[in-house]
Amino acid sequence: MSQTGFISAETHNLHSGQVEATLAGEVGLLARNIVIEGNKYPGFENKLRGRVIVSCLTQDGLDYEGSAKLDAVEFRNMGQLGFDDTDDPRFSLAFHSLGETTTNYVKRCSFNVNFSPALGFFSTNSVPVEANIFYHSVGSGVIDEGSDNVYKDNLLVSILFPGTYNGAQETQNMDWYGAFNLNKATNPVLENNVVAGSEQAGIRTYGENCQDASLWINNEIHSAIFGVLLWKKSGDADSPCKRVSNMYAWRIKDTAFFMMYPASLLLSNVLSVDNKLGTNQLVCRPAAVSHEFEDKTATVRDSVFVGATPSHTCSFHQSSSSSILFFSKSKFWEGGKEDGNTGILFASFMSSVNMAPKHKFNELSSYPALHGSSYIEDVTFTNFESRDNCGIDVALMTNQGSDDAIHPIFTSGLTFVDTPEDNYVFIHYTNLVRVNPSDCVDMDCDGHKKVVVTDNDGTLLGSEQATLTSEAEKEWDGDRSHGVGNYRIPIPLRQNSDGSAIPEADKFPNKGM
Q: Which residues, listed in sequence order, are joined to residue 374 by a DSSP beta bridge?
């Protein structure tokens, strides 16, 4: 066994025992009898300690192809900081340009202190990577730019951000890495892997295609800023729908499942526990100004969200790593009710990607898309309560960064356990800061005034087809800084033909949507 998972374990039985959440540290054995070790010399942190590269070459008219069958080998103090380009990956171990292969594998190995990503695949396919331990890698633990590589039973621990590593302050470094960096990988298999500690994301990916059978089974991420980061900053979609599934994320500092992509999004069969935000789905394109639309959707299905377990304290989310301070805490999720935890943020549909990481990850920086709808189906919420000095945990919430529009939301099959009704849904009021000439001019933006949640089966609101709407009339004839009131009604609409005034209560008795 290369890893176990029972240190300081705490197990919670949820939803009548149908779901079990275990919060535990991992133990991994790093020592191996066969050791490949980098040299030590002064200033070694930024120098090449050593690397193993498996590749091919042509010399004197002959083709040579490397092969490596690695089992129970320790790579110790390897790699070089800053060299992770495709053409010169100075990793502890890299496979390059081997194409489809059946003669390579990495099993039961340990990567013990890496000054770079530990393992990389470039134009190399179908390599089994099983039961390995990756400890102390800079950037990512694994970078995959191949296809059909298989990751099973691996443990990745302490994955560090290069921009702040060893006291650095690379102020222009806006890169975001995953312990598993898979956004250039095709059809990777992920089964029974654990990421335990990452200064950025647990998994960076473009997700799976919804129409394909899932190759991801029973993976776990904890103690990271983001759990799964499905984030495409440019380019077109290669599928009409992208999926993240079969994941367990707990004690995530920002968002357990962040998804931003120019296609429909599906989050299914996930367990989210003790996370600041369970999921945020942002669907991009087509641009509203193009007068084009697509009926894209964002769906959360067959999943469980736990607000806070009994052992969860405020101190975890209040602590800050060097990478959080580097990017500024203001770039991350701060929208919880009184700083509490949130299960699902209602999805946003927008004309283009937002400006993260230079700006907040949850904010929109383009016009809303013309079409879009969200579906929350067969989801259980448990332990979303008010906690002393820790804020109010809420199951469902609007995205406070979506000022111009929040598209329709439809719910069904919801279950609430140990969650008061007041903690089911929270709808933000408008952002007063947006009342300015550059945004919504002299009155509130419309987004948070036009929220409509439809309960298809009564499991949210108590009756079928009931609707929950925002309080659009709030501050009508109240605080003038919001710019709404009877005084905004054009004078001709408030007068009879003879010029006499029509009482607003007679002609406009109802306010709101």
A: 298, 409
Domain count, the chain: 3
Give the separation between CA 217 and CA 190, rounded to whole angstroms. 6
CA diameter of the chain: 102
Q: Based on the fold, state whether residues 314 and 292 are members of the same structural domain.
A: yes
Q: Which domain holds residue 435?
A: 230-472
**pLDDT tens digits, residue range 178-233?**
999 999 999 999 999 999 999 999 999 999 999 999 999 999 999 999 999 999 98
E runs forming strands in 115-193: 119-125, 128-130, 133-138, 142-145, 150-152, 155-160, 178-181, 189-191
Q: Over the chain, what is the mean pLDDT?
A: 91
Q: Are residues 405 and 318 in the same domain?
A: yes
Q: Compute the Cα dihedral for 175, 181, 187, 190 and give only its sign.
A: negative
Where is 505: in which H helix or E strand? helix 504-507
pLDDT digits (tens, 9 = 90+) for 6-25: 455 666 666 556 667 889 98
Which residues contact residue 388 at a Cβ distance below 8 angstroms, ignoring those fewer than 6 apart? none
Residue type, 333: W
Using DSSP's 3-state secondary structure scheme, residue 423 falls into helix
Cα–Cα distance measured from residue 401 to residue 226, given in angstroms and rounded to the nearest whole number: 18
Cα-to-chain-centroid distance, residue 403: 21
Surface-to-core class of residue 310, CB atoms within 10 Å of its CB (0-12 exposed, 13-18 middle, 19+ buried): exposed
Are the beta carbons of 281 and 314 closer than 8 angstroms?
no
DSSP strand pairing (219-231 vs 3-14): unpaired
How far apart are alpha carbons 118 and 141 in whole angstroms?
5
Q: Based on the number of CB atoms within 10 Å of its own CB, is 291 exposed (0-12), middle (13-18) or buried (19 or more)?
A: exposed
- The structure's pTM equals 0.94
The string of DSSP letters for 194-250 reads EEEEEEEEEEEE--EETTSPP-EESEEEEEEEEEEEEE--SS--SSSEEEEEEEEEE
Whether residues 343 and 413 fall in one domain: yes
